[in-house]
Amino acid sequence: MKKNILILTLKAGSGHLQAAKSKQLEHKKLGHNVIEKRVLFDLVGNIAGLFVSKIWNYCQAQGVSSLLFFFSICCRTFDVLVFPFFFVKLSYVLYKEDIDEVIDTQPFGTRSFIKSIRLISKLTNKKIPYKIVLTDLPTKKCASFLKPIKNLSKIDRDHIEILTTKPMLAQHETEEDFWLKNTKLPLERIYYTEFPLRETFTTYKESSGPLQLQFKAHSDKGLDLIKKCLNLSSASFEINKRDLSFVFEEEILSLIILGTYPQKSALINYMTQYIEQKKTYRRDSKEYLFLLVGPKKTANKHYLSIYNALKEIKDYPKNLCVVPLSFQDDKALAPLYFNLDFIIAKSGGLTSMELLKAVKKNIFIHDDPEHNNSNYLSFLTKDLFDSMPLWERGNAEYLMDKKAAKLINPKLFKIQTIEFFKELNFAQVSAQ
After folding, report:
1. Exposure check for the chain: N or C terminus, fewer CB within 10 A?
2. How far is the CA of 281 from the CAs of 147, 255, 421, in angstroms?
3. Which residues, 6 or more positions from 169, have their beta carbon under 8 angstroms from its beta carbon?
């Protein structure tokens, strides 16, 4: 039977939007009618939506972790202030569009949404399921999603289903214990499903032949800067308009990705540290280091900074090719992830799920304690603050438990990565 599905999402970072898109594709394949609403833009207003998304993305790009943490605390107060907007506008959408099911991929407004759903369910004499998709891994630190559910009344919680994966458990803890403790929901209201990933991450099939990858440069200036980086090495590649094509057989593939809006200084610092290790441990085969620099609108500035940094490196190893790229679609990224030998990433929710799904070895999670924070914010959050936002810390711990991931920062790069370089049987270069 054809259903009207309402998907709620948030335009701050990319994980919530990716999860919404995944669920949208899933239900469209089933023939359902899908309506998507960005909760701040569409239910409160453009000013609120722009304010939240701009602050969030600025904090990510500047590495201001304490402001992210403080901002997440303020969101609880914000939820109370916008309750009337969420309640009234969602009720209107539910009634007007005759919604049969609500899927929520973000943590705002849980209480007001469930009140709206209960009201319209009663008016229409139709039960409307409310399904919350966790876009962080289920740990006790996934508080932004779990705590609002736990704080609901029992009658409100009875309308909620959680779509997620199996949680990370403490010693002697059962799955039922975890969910009761963190959400007060019984295990039968928890549904373990596939990760809400971009499509190719779920459909990709590995082959035994050469790996062919194709990436987009998005602009002529960007393409020119990428080519300058590639030409510092002995890399083999082809260009067709703005598409870059590579064919790999035995090459070593590495990737550094530091979130939707990566901090430029950290990205370049990791790159130079990586190259220094390559100068110490060498081998004859070609190696590629991919750097994802964020959205295409800011990519050229990153490309130029990366190229200028590469030019300053003495004795640059020609068998190492650095490939800076703006964000690519899943058809380009999924094959790369499944064939990586090494990755440094932040532990955002959807990134962590992609790492769990696709990357087999040598996962390093960026955790820089020398974060860029104001003294005032550090004082406000000193008893609670961590160098990662709480939810990302939980994701990192999950990856450490399930995938043997390690924490890393530029100062510890040499120590933390030495096993990776040695296990590939590089020949040590004697100091001169």
Report:
1. C
2. 48, 18, 7
3. 175, 177, 178
What the block records as the tokens of 222 is 């960007």
What pLDDT does 370 receive? 59
What average pLDDT does range 306-316 have in this prediction? 95
Judge whether 265 and 293 are in contact, CB under 8 Å. Answer: no
CB atoms within 10 A of CB 304: 15
Whether 185 and 149 have beta carbons less than 8 Å apart is answered as yes
3-state secondary structure of 413: helix
Among candidate residues 340, 346, 345, the one with its CA nearest the CA of residue 361: 340
Say what the pLDDT of residue 144 is.
86
User: Could you read off the pLDDT of 80-114 as tens digits, one per residue?
Assistant: 777 888 999 999 999 999 999 999 999 889 999 99
Residue 41: the pLDDT is 85
| Burial class (CB within 10 angstroms; exposed 0-12, middle 13-18, buried 19+) of 250 | exposed
Given pLDDT bands bounded at 50, 70 and 90, which one contains residue 19?
very high
Q: Is 285 helix (H, G, I), strand (E, B) or coil?
A: coil
Q: 242 has which bridge partners?
A: none
Asked if the model's pLDDT at residue 79 lies above 80, the reply is no
E-assigned strand segments in 326-370:
342-345, 363-366
**CA atoms within 13 Å, Cβ hemisphere of 14:** 20
Q: What span, in angstroms and rounded, lies between the C-alpha atoms of 359 and 347?
A: 14
Q: Residue 77: left if φ>0, alpha if ψ -120 to 50, beta else—which one? A: alpha
- pLDDT, one tens digit per residue, over 412-423 is 999 999 988 876
pLDDT at 44 over 90: no
Give the per-residue pLDDT at 428. Answer: 43
- Cα separation, 361 vs 352, in Å, equals 14
Q: What is the pLDDT of residue 42?
A: 86
Reduced to 3 states (helix: H, G, I; strand: E, B; else coil), residue 180 is helix
Cα dihedral value 349, 150, 180, 142, nearest 10: 20
Contact 254, 272 (CB under 8 A): no
271-275 contacts, C-beta under 8 A, 24 or more apart: 271/306, 271/309, 271/310, 271/322, 272/309, 272/313, 273/410, 273/413, 273/414, 274/413, 274/417, 275/313, 275/316, 275/317, 275/320, 275/322
